[in-house]
Specification:
single chain, Ribosomal Protein L25, Chain P, seven-stranded parallel sheet, five-stranded mixed sheet
Length: about 260
């Protein structure tokens, strides 16, 4: 009998600390030039007959059994151990941060299990950040996948990019539970909000600004869109810190820090 699909205690022994799951799609063979081959052979030092934790992107989790490993490539059989664990009903709006912060931010938000990450240009944000290599959708998605693999979960958050706050708000205007973080006298503590109505059918939208914060124009847009103004205290935080901390608080307050059965 297979263990619980949510039981991961054996994966650290199988895969090691560097990566908690290796993703695949339909392939069952990888070439020596593939970074997964390099990781499995050089970092994990696996050989024929060994196993490692693996999963199908946006699909089931399981164990890979190595059947062939030589200079021409690696072949494996996949043994399904459980279904994909769902992402959490929290959608993140984040003002474009510095490129080096963007890499960490995408990895952290995806490892925590946000269902959507919406990057938006802001009035005070540096426009060149959106033109950086790390903001390229393919590179950004790779960082998201890296975060999922670190978390040992196969569900991959969706990524969207918008030129302005105006554009991103048009996407979420019909959702009822919306919060914007701001350093404001009117802000209430994020942890004091009643999140009991948040569910897969009614996700939470959580907005965090870029490093220079929001303009009065953008504050007016959030107000008109029905956002509640919250804070994480009276300290000014980096965008990546605020986003990760806010998501962690929201996960705890919505009960999503517990296993979703």
């Amino acid at each position: 009998m297979y263990p619980s699909p949510y039981e991961k205690s054996n994966c650290s022994d199988i895969l090691g600390p560097a990566m908690n799951i290796v993703f695949f799609e339909s392939e069952r063979e990888i070439s020596p030039s593939d970074e997964r081959y390099q990781h499995i052979t050089r970092v994990l030092k696996k050989s024929v007959g060994d196993t490692f934790c693996s999963g199908i992107k946006n699909g089931p989790e399981g164990i890979a059994h190595i059947t062939r490993l030589d200079d021409s490539g690696l072949s494996f059989d996949f043994e399904e151990r459980g279904p994909m664990r769902p992402l959490h009903p929290i959608r993140m709006i984040v003002g474009f941060p510095r490129p080096i912060q963007l890499r960490r931010l995408l990895r952290d938000l995806s490892s925590l299990g946000a269902s959507e990450i919406m990057l938006a240009g802001t009035d005070l944000g540096e426009k060149s950040y959106r033109d950086s290599r790390l903001a390229n959708p393919e590179v950004a998605r790779k960082n998201i996948i890296d975060g999922c693999m670190q978390a040992g979960a196969t569900a991959i958050p969706e990524l969207f990019m918008y030129a302005s706050v105006d554009q991103v708000l048009a996407r979420v205007h019909e959702l009822p539970v919306k919060i914007v973080l701001d350093v404001s006298p009117q802000a209430v503590p994020l942890a004091s909000i009643d999140f009991s109505g948040v569910s897969d059918q009614c996700p939470l939208v959580l907005a965090i600004g870029s490093e220079r914060g929001w303009t009065e124009r953008e504050r007016g847009l959030f107000n008109d869109a029905g956002f509640t103004v919250c804070s994480l205290g009276n300290r000014i935080l980096r965008t990546e810190t605020a986003a990760t901390a806010a998501l962690a608080v929201a996960l705890a307050c919505t009960g999503n820090m517990e296993e979703r059965k």
